[in-house]
Amino acid sequence: MSKSNNSNASIIAIWISLISNVVLTIVKISVGFLVKSPVLLADGFNNAGDVIASAAALISMRISKRPADEDHPYGHGKAEVISSAIISIILGIAAIYIAYEAISAFFEEPAKGSFLALLTAFVSLIWKQALYMYTIRIGKMTNSKGLIATAYDHLADVYASIAAVLGIGLSLIGDIYGIHILSYGDPLAGLIVSIFVFKLAYKIGKESLDILMEKTVAQEILNDFGILIKTIPEVKRIDRLRAREHGHYVLVDIRVSVPGELTVQEGHDISRKIKKIILDNHLDVDEVLIHLNPWYENDL
Asked: What are the φ/ψ torsions at residue 9 (nearest 5 degrees)?
C-alpha cells in the first residue's frame, strides 16, 4: 500500500473511532442516568475521555503528515508520539477513576441491576472489540503510533465493558435469586479492570517516551540494514549504523567506507544505491543519511 493510501486509511480509522466514542458516550451516560447504573455511568465518563483522546490522535495525525519545512527539517512525525503520550495519560487517569469508583462502591448500598444497562454494556463490548481489531490492524499496517495507541485505548474499553457486563449481570442474578453479595461483583470487576487499564497506560507511555528520547530501533532491524548495505560491492566497511523512529517513519544514519580512489560522482552513485536498497526493503523508512569515508588496502 502506498504512503498516500496509508495516510487515508489512518485518517478514516481515527474518524470512525472518534464518531464511535461520541455515540457510545452519549448512549452510556443517558442509559446510566435513566436506570441509575453507577458502573455504566463510570464507563460512559471513561468514554468521554476517549473522545478527547481520539480528537488528539486525529489532530496529531494530520500534523504528522505535513511535509518537512524550514523549522522542522525532519518532518512532523513526532506529533503522533505526543498524542500517544496524551492517550497514555488519559488512560492512567481513567484507571485511577475506575479504581476509585470501584472501591467507593464497596462502602455503599449496591445498585440494582437493569436489563437495559446490561444490553448497553454488551453492545459496547462488541463494538469496542470490533474497533480494536480494525484500528490495530490499520495502525500496524501504516506504522501509525497515534492509531496504535487509539487501538489500545479501545482495548482498555473492552476490559471496562467486560467489567460492566459482569457487574450488571451479577447484580441481576443477585436480585432475581435474592443473593445480596453478588451485587458487589460490579465493583470487584471494576477494580480488576483498573489494573489492566493502568498496565496499558504504562505500556503506551513508555513506548512514547522511548521515541521522544531518541531510542534506537530494534537490533534485528539494524542487522537487516547492515545485511542490505553489505550487498553493495563497493562498501568495504560499515563504520556506524544508527536508526530511530520519528513517529510513523524511521530515520537512518549511516557511515560506510568505500575505496578512496573513487570519484565524487562514483561515491554519489554508491550513496544512491544504499539509500534505494533500504527504502525498497523497508517501507517505514523515510530518510537515509549517508556519510562516505575513504578506505585503502592497508586499512585495518
From this structure: -65, -40
pLDDT tens-digit readout, 167-191: 888 888 887 887 878 877 767 777 7
Residues 266, 175: Cα–Cα separation, whole Å = 82
CA distance linking residue 244 with residue 252, whole number of Å: 7
The dihedrals phi and psi of 286, each to the nearest 5 degrees, come to -110, -30
Alpha-carbon distances, residue 133 vs 15, 147, 152, 210 (angstroms): 15, 12, 10, 25
Specify whether the CB–CB gap between 21 and 54 falls below 8 A. Answer: yes
Is the distance from CB of 68 to CB of 74 less than 8 angstroms?
Answer: yes
pTM of structure: 0.68
Q: In the chain, what are the domains?
A: 3-212 (1.20.1510.10), 219-295 (3.30.70.1350)
Evaluate if residue 251 carries a pLDDT over 90: no
Rounded distance, CA 113 to CA 96, Å?
A: 24
